[in-house]
Structure formats: structure tokens, C-alpha cells
Design goal:
This protein is an alpha+beta fold and about 250 residues long. It has two domains: about 10-105, OB fold (Dihydrolipoamide Acetyltransferase, E2P) (Beta Barrel), CATH 2.40.50; about 145-250, 60s Ribosomal Protein L30, Chain: A (2-Layer Sandwich), CATH 3.30.1330. Helices cover about 20% and strands about 30% of the residues. The chain contains three helices and 13 strands, in the order αββββββββαβββαββ. A hairpin with a 6-residue loop joins β2 and β3.
């Protein structure tokens, strides 16, 4: 009996460490505060995120488009009626799908998790109780630094977090009088839970490199020190290589 109990406890980390990678239509569930976004996979509902504004760390998916969900089953109760995934990455698929238009009404007992943002349009901001961290000050002596800009699946779009990071890169390059700013873009693939792999378009790496380089030039980085390249080969289908790496050398 004791051995069986110990075996059951040993299984708990494995159960909650299960990866869920799938493509599905997002489902919007209304609540008394903010809408929740869910997705179904193999007959089970998974909680993705809540509706937030552009300052949030995680952007919600869009109706009329499928979403690539890459997450890990998290312990704890259901959220908005779905199994929580944490961490989770969401990528809106570009193709239009008119079937992705499910909106569920609010139900008693199903509530969205707490949020700083109130219900309604994103222009109605809730007061921020904690001050944001001050911007980093770059002072000598300077040494080589690296950054990684993450992208959604098959996308070269620079979101607000990425542009803030690139502003930091440009500020450091100016303060350090950089002799070299290397921009290297990559593409990737994701292995879905059903065993299939989805691979990004071959041209997306070059598009990411161009988008990052153009913004850095616009932020004042000297074009003569900017070295831009892209890698179209996909090394492994783990979804972690959807990045542009930046190396700044004083």
C-alpha cells in the first residue's frame, strides 16, 4: 500500500508537466469582469488568457483565426472552466477561418482571474499600484551584450515588448560607441501533441532580420556597424528558435 502511495506521488510532477501543443479555434467566454480565452483539444477545454491591453505580457488570440497553443499543464483549479496552461505561448495563425467565432455567455461560478485592467475598452486603464522599474542606465566600462527578440509563429511583427527591447539595444549601442551590432534571425518549427510538426515559412527569418535592422537604424544605430543575417535552416522542432539574436560589441 505504501509503495502504491509513493508511486502515485511520484506521478504528480509528470502529470502536471505535460506539454500541450495544438492548433485550434479560440473560444471567448464572457464573465462579469473581462472575457476569457479558451481552446479545446481532444475534448478538453484549456484556459489561455484573459482580454488585456497592449501592456500585457501575453496577447490574447483573435476570433476568425486559429491559434497555435504551446503550453504546459499547470497544477491548480480550472480557470474560466478550462485547465490552466503555464507557461503558455499563443500565436495567431494568419489564415482566416470563419468557423472560429464561438462566444460563450457568462455563467454563475465561472469568473476570470484578477486583473489590473477593468472590464470594457482598453482605454479605461486601472490604476497601477506598483511603479514600473526605472530604465537601465548604461555606464562604462562597457562589455559585449546580447539580446533575444522573440516572435510569434510565422510572424515578423514587432510587438510593444520587442520595440522596448530594441530601444534598449540602441541606447546601449550609442552609450558604448558600438563597433559592431550583429543581428541574426532564425526560423523554427513546433512539434504538435498529435505528432505532426508545423514549420514556419522559409522567408520569415529574412523578414525578421529586416524588421529588426530597420527599427534599429530608425533608432539611431549606425548602419556601418550593423551586420544583418538570417538562418533559414530549422535545427529542431521545439518552437524556441523563433528569435532574432542581437550581439553588441563596444
Amino acid at each position: 500500500m505504501i509503495r502504491q502511495v509513493l508511486f502515485a506521488f511520484a506521478l504528480i510532477p509528470a502529470i502536471f508537466a505535460q506539454q500541450r501543443n495544438f492548433i485550434a479555434c479560440p473560444i471567448v467566454r464572457d464573465t462579469k469582469t473581462v472575457p476569457c480565452f479558451l481552446a479545446e483539444y481532444e475534448g478538453e477545454a484549456y484556459f489561455l488568457t484573459i482580454q488585456q491591453d497592449i501592456s500585457a505580457e501575453l496577447y490574447p488570440p483573435q476570433l476568425l483565426h486559429e491559434v497555435l497553443v504551446e503550453g504546459t499543464v499547470a497544477p491548480g483549479p480550472r480557470v474560466c472552466g478550462g485547465i490552466p496552461l503555464k507557461p503558455v505561448k499563443l500565436s495567431v495563425m494568419p489564415e482566416l477561418n470563419l468557423a472560429c467565432n464561438t462566444i460563450l455567455p457568462a455563467e454563475p461560478g465561472i469568473e476570470a482571474p484578477p486583473t489590473r485592467r477593468p472590464a470594457g475598452p482598453s482605454t479605461r486603464q486601472a490604476p497601477i499600484t506598483t511603479a514600473p522599474p526605472p530604465p537601465e542606465r548604461f555606464t562604462p566600462p562597457f562589455s559585449e551584450r546580447q539580446w533575444k527578440v522573440a516572435f510569434d509563429f510565422d510572424s515578423a511583427y514587432l510587438n510593444s515588448r520587442a520595440t522596448r527591447m530594441l530601444s534598449q539595444v540602441a541606447e546601449f549601442a550609442a552609450a558604448a560607441k558600438a563597433k559592431s551590432v550583429e543581428v541574426t534571425a532564425h526560423r523554427s518549427a513546433t512539434l504538435l501533441s498529435n505528432g505532426k510538426a508545423v514549420t514556419e515559412a522559409e522567408a520569415v527569418a529574412a523578414k525578421r532580420a529586416s524588421a529588426v535592422a530597420d527599427l534599429l537604424r530608425g533608432l539611431g544605430v549606425d548602419a556601418t556597424v550593423l551586420k544583418v543575417s538570417s538562418v533559414a535552416e530549422v535545427s529542431r522542432p521545439d518552437g524556441d528558435n523563433r528569435i532574432v539574436s542581437i550581439r553588441v560589441s563596444p
